[in-house]
């Protein structure tokens, strides 16, 4: 059922359950046709993201970032946590206009918005690091290569790439979260993505022109962080 077809006399929670059982879920995440369901979806993703935050924010490479471009930054949960943890750093959230409208950014805020479509629009310049948190697994390998090239193009020399999320194990035989997410992405959501092993991300990062590629695995909630540098 598409968000537009979901009965509007039901609560956002009830409409969420109707939509979540069909392939329209991911379009509901991105386009936000139903504001109540949309807000609920982003809040529920954010609740889980918050639990996984230490694996990202405690990383020594992340600690030295001055301006983070949080691509597919959603409702700003990661950006806000990063800005609070690192009080001299700035963050720009890039996401669909339907999503960035959920983020409150008062004047003078170190968290700023750059609405746009990842594939149709250029990424903004000015950041010294680009983060994809729980974003790349949504897409096919070919789309990921395109996105990593776009990230490489807007970074200065020495700028860093961070890919954070649920990597599959190298033999793709371990990990309850990653197995479940692969099923969800392929069957219910985009029909394209899956949880890839870190080795795939490392190879795609090198193909996009990055060097110094390394990975941190075994983080809480089966998370992994791939770090690479534009040379
Ligand atoms: C699974 S959420 C991850 C949100 C956040 N980064 C986190 O870690 O919780 C994926 C995000 O990618 C965004 N996204 C997907 N396709 C996009 C596109 N074509 N252009 C811009 N953003 C997109 C979605 O709107 C959503 O906010």
Explain this structure to me?
It is a single chain. This protein is of the alpha/beta class. The chain has a single domain (52-230), classed as Rossmann fold, CATH 3.40.50.150. Helix content is 39%, strand content 19%. The chain has 8 helices and 7 strands; from the N terminus they run H-H-H-E-H-E-H-E-E-H-E-H-H-E-E. Strands 3-2-1-4-5-7-6 form a 7-stranded mixed sheet, with helices on both faces. Strand 4, helix 6 and strand 5 (160-165) form a beta-alpha-beta unit. Helix 2 (25-31) crosses helix 3 (35-57) and helix 3 packs parallel to helix 4 (77-85). The mean pLDDT is 86. S-adenosylmethionine binds at residues 29-30, 45-46, 49, 72-74, 77-78, 95-96, 99, 117-119, 133-135, 138.
Attached small molecules: S-adenosylmethionine
Structural class: alpha/beta
Largest pleated sheet: 7 strands, mixed
Uncertain ranges: none
Order of helices and strands: HHHEHEHEEHEHHEE
CATH superfamily membership, which one?
A: Vaccinia Virus protein VP39
Q: Portion of residues in helices?
A: 25-40%
Cα Rg? 17 Å
Tell me the fraction of residues in β-strands, as a range. 15-25%
* Number of DSSP helical runs: 8
């Amino acid at each position: 059922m598409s968000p537009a077809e979901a009965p509007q006399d039901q609560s956002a929670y009830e409409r969420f359950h109707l939509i979540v059982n069909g392939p329209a879920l991911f379009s509901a995440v991105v386009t936000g046709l139903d504001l109540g369901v949309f807000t609920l979806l982003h809040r529920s993703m954010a609740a889980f993201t918050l639990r996984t935050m230490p694996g990202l924010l405690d990383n020594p490479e992340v600690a030295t970032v001055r301006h983070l471009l949080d691509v597919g930054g959603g409702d700003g949960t990661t950006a806000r946590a990063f800005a609070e943890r690192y009080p001299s750093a700035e963050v720009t959230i890039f996401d669909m206009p339907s999503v960035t409208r959920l983020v409150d950014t008062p004047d003078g805020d170190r968290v700023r918005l750059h609405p746009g479509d990842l594939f149709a629009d250029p990424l903004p310049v000015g950041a010294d690091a680009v983060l994809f948190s729980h974003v790349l697994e949504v897409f096919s390998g070919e789309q990921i290569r395109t996105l990593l090239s776009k990230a490489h193009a807007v970074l200065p020399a020495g700028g860093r790439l961070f890919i954070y999320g649920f990597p599959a194990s190298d033999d793709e035989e371990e990990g309850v979260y990653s197995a479940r997410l692969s099923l969800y992405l392929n069957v219910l959501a985009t029909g394209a993505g899956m949880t890839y092993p870190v080795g795939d991300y490392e190879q795609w990062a090198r193909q996009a022109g990055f060097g110094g590629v390394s990975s941190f695995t075994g983080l809480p909630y089966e998370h992994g962080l791939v770090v690479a540098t534009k040379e």
